[in-house]
Amino acid sequence: MSDAAAPDSLNICFSLADQSFAQTKSVGIYNLSLGLLSALAQHASMARLIALTNEESERALPKSVHALRHDSASGGRIGRILWDQSGVYAAARKTGCDWLILPKGFASFVRKPPVKLATYVHDTMIDYYRENHPEAVSGMENAYFHRSFRASLRHSDIIFTNTDFSASEIRRAAERFGTEPPHVITAGIGFERPRQLFAKRDRIVVLASPHPHKLTAKAVDWLARWDDGGDWPVDWIGSLPDSVPPPARDNWHFHSRLPEAVYRETVNSARMLVFFSEHEGFGMPPVEAAIAGVCPVHSSIPATNEVMGGTGLRFDNDDYESFANAMNEAKQVSADRLQTWAEELLERHNWTKVADRVVRGMLGR
Fold it and tell me: Model's pTM, two decimal places?
């Protein structure tokens, strides 16, 4: 039997056992999971918060959170599948908590949850890829995550997400699948001031990816056209698609992946960050750049425009001139303007506000 919680308090089990910085495909989701857990741990309505962890994620927990180790959940593909489909539910039931939060957003399609289920669904990317880039994901992986996504729509008592755009896409997907529209709340994502500020240098950071929605081939083409003089160094972070060889340019440097501390220093000491994408649920890097005093230049797409509001500089993915104009303007952005953007974004994307929305949503169910 679970300890009875007061009507205005919560007993929550939070799953982190299948996440680690070393293995994750999305550093953003990993950091969001830790940020949300930390914010909930400080909330006045939290009667009990238990984290299901592995060796790495346990070290990142606030001291107030009780941890239960399940290292097998991060021990390879088979271990993660068994955890996703059965292990996490069994572990949650044993805690006696009333709620289970799955911050990666994918529920079991084999079992029904034994407690109330809250998922944080970051985007509908698996659905987007099936419609727009079906060749980019292996058939087995696509089928697995698609079934897990649909299970989240069916079995979640509540779905949290990051933007109103994502919320509308989740409801649209449920309608297309013939599933009763889930209860979706835009909880958002919180950000904090950088722990360390770096002196800015005349450098540009561009985020690259082999995934087609990141438009890296276009980024290489357009940067080469704009950077014809090569007066500022350009750091590319991330892997290029196999079809895009690294251009031989003296001022371009390529890093497939950087340790977190090195990544932060590389980005936060630059003058601008360039972020290409055709689809996002949120788009965290432009926000992180702006609050560190780096001018973000980003694709004009619904989610990222919603997140950024009037901050940063956007460009049209179908218009090179809009990109060139944004890049030229970014080189001239004043420190005062960057500081104003940072304060606006920190006020809008605040972990305390995120935790309040999550708690209110769960208490209302």
Answer: 0.92
